[in-house]
Amino acid sequence: MKQLNIPVKLPDYFTLLNALLGLFSIFFVLRSDYSTAAILLIIAVLADVLDGKIARAINREGDFGKELDSLADIISFGVAPIIFAYTLNNSLIGLIAYSLYLIAGLIRLARFNTTTNTGAFEGVPITTNGVLLPLIYFIGLSTTYYPAYFIVMAFLMVSSIKVKKIKW
């Protein structure tokens, strides 16, 4: 019998934690516990930062980790924020905005995975939404504005704006 070769390394466990935190955020939204869901998104950002930092520190960067990271990011910073916002504002314009955001997030992550690392991101990283959405929730921005926020974020993610990478 052939043994399974699953190439999961230490940084990948933080990536998987990121994905689980996004999933748990969705679960808490479905229970109408938005504060916990928002906090889990912020913690997911920390897990996302740590996976890359650890990978660089132990020289374990690679294609597998990069792909896994994008899959986790679409859960935590794509789908979870959409479900969060949708349960608070499910207007027609909201449905359109959330759909555009998801498409832009997928394009943003695919572009990131197929370009070379230059020290700057092209377009706003999808991870940004793991901090900004909880922030606008906690400051009490009216949910009426959520669709506009998601439309702006969608365009920023696929824009050619250069965003300098933060060194943690």
Q: What is the CATH domain class?
A: Mainly Alpha
Structural class based on helices, strands and sheet pairing: mainly alpha
Q: What would you say the CATH architecture is? A: Up-down Bundle
Whole-number total of structural domains: 1
Q: What is the residue-mean pLDDT, rounded to a whole number?
A: 92
Count, helices? 6
Identify low-pLDDT runs: none
Strand content: under 5%
Spatial arrangement of strands, main beta sheet:
1-2
**CATH homologous superfamily heading:** CDP-alcohol phosphotransferase transmembrane (TM) domain
CATH topology group:
Four Helix Bundle (Hemerythrin (Met), subunit A)
Order of helices and strands: HHHHEHHE
Q: Radius of gyration, Cα only, in angstroms?
A: 16 Å
Major sheet, described briefly?
2 strands, antiparallel
Provide a concise account of the structure shown.
With 168 residues, this protein is mainly α. The protein contains 6 helices and 2 strands; from the N terminus they run ααααβααβ. It has a two-stranded antiparallel sheet with strand order 1-2.
How are the elements arranged and paired?
Elements: H1 10-30, H2 34-57, H3 63-88, H4 92-113, E1 120-122, H5 129-138, H6 146-158, E2 162-164
Antiparallel strand pairs: 1-2
